[in-house]
Amino acid sequence: MGKRWALATLAVVSVLLAGCASTVTSQVTAFGDAPGFDGPRTYALTRTPEQQNNQEHATYEQWLRTRLAGDGFSERSPSSAHYLIGMTYGITQQMMRVTEPVYDPMFAPAPWGPWGRPWGGYGYPFGAPPAYVERSYPYGLAGLQLRFTDRASGKEVYRVQANTSDAGTSLASAMPYLIDAALGQLPFPSGRTVNVEQKVGR
């Protein structure tokens, strides 16, 4: 039981360290009046002052344009688009503390079977039990928010937030998953949080 627990813990930690999970899970929460997208699917992107002349933001905008095109949206000028879409995002660096077993090398689990090392020692539980140490591992908690505003009325018609801790420690690595998750369903049910799973490298 202890060995299986240790292996499971190490698997989780390796995912956080390497960012190599086979899937990325995002938590998506939306607010808006259903159906929310009755009008023409035309849009223009808006920018905050900090996002002007920002090459990182321009890259994320291009990823968003590509995803919106796949949903049947067409970009127009800010004076003629049906929707104005604002995009905000960020990442915070977090630390996860994990308690892990540490074995005396003489009694550590070995590939030679249940009897431990071939030169002596019979392995736990026949030898010394493992000690336990706490280690800290970094991970990133990334978030994206998209805000759809009706240009003619100025009314916000839809807001969606996506968050994930599965996509590495950089915002650039997380953004493709966040954009895809946030637009995975238009619209998502208002006021509910939905888990969206995406395969890595698809």
UniProtKB/TrEMBL annotation:
Keyword terms of this UniProt record: Signal
InterPro entries tied to this protein: DUF4136
Keyword Transport: no
Chain ranges of the DUF4136 domain: 29-187
Superkingdom assignment: Bacteria
Signal peptide residues on this chain, from the entry's feature table: 1-26
PROSITE patterns (alphabetical): PROKAR_LIPOPROTEIN (PS51257)
Protein name, per record: DUF4136 domain-containing protein
Organism whose genome encodes this protein: Pandoraea eparura
